[in-house]
Amino acid sequence: MSTLLLGTRNLGKIREITSILEDSGWSFSSPQDNIETPPEHGKTFTDNATAKARFYATASGLWALADDSGLEVDALGGAPGVYSARYAGDNASDADRRALLLSELAQVSEKDRRARFVSVVVIASADGTVLNISEGICEGTITFAPRGNGGFGYDPLFVPDGYSQTFAELPETVKNRISHRARALLKTRQFLASAKDHV
After folding, report:
1. pTM of this prediction?
2. Assigned CATH topology for domain 3-198
3. Which of 68, 74, 112, 127 is catalytic?
4. In terms of Cα–Cα distance, which of 8, 7, 23 is closest to 196?
5. Helix H or strand E segment including 158
6. DSSP conformational letter for 93
7. Which tens digit of pLDDT belongs to each residue from 6-31?
8. Nearest by Cα to 65 from 1, 143, 142, 125
9. d(CA 57, CA 149)
10. Residue 82: exposure state from Cβ atoms within 10 A (0-12, 13-18, ≥19)
11. Is 68 one of the annotated active-site residues of the chain?
């Protein structure tokens, strides 16, 4: 079975990715401690995911998967967007980022709290060649306060369309079917399943 390096040290992402890709015919590994975390200077999710996938692939000598994802809030002109993870500063916690977002939306009414999660997943081969790019989008709204203990990041603030619960309140099985990352990864899984015999 071929091994795919998952280009992230985020344990929540690793759990989500392996759950969705588990029947793709691949085994998974995480970056070794001697591999640095690449900087994210891209202006788009695709730029960042591509740079990370190429970096991890060439550093490890394995095919690598990397994603870049974030929250786009209409009332904030699409922010935090590609800066979602660094929205409240480099060393801020998830709780810090959620608190900042809620403070910036404090005067925004319920009907104007539209948002979407976007995820781009890129696969690169060991020589850094980009083999596949998949995008997933999940539309929804932002709550007035965090709700739920599941997920990570902005999940306790985001209610996907068609549901009354936040991503942090929904069962993982549901989130892993409807989320932005799930939608991108399901497309990625098709590519990986067809490619597993050609590595």
Report:
1. 0.91
2. Maf protein (3.90.950)
3. 68
4. 23
5. strand 158-160
6. -
7. 999 888 889 989 999 988 999 999 88
8. 125
9. 33
10. buried
11. yes
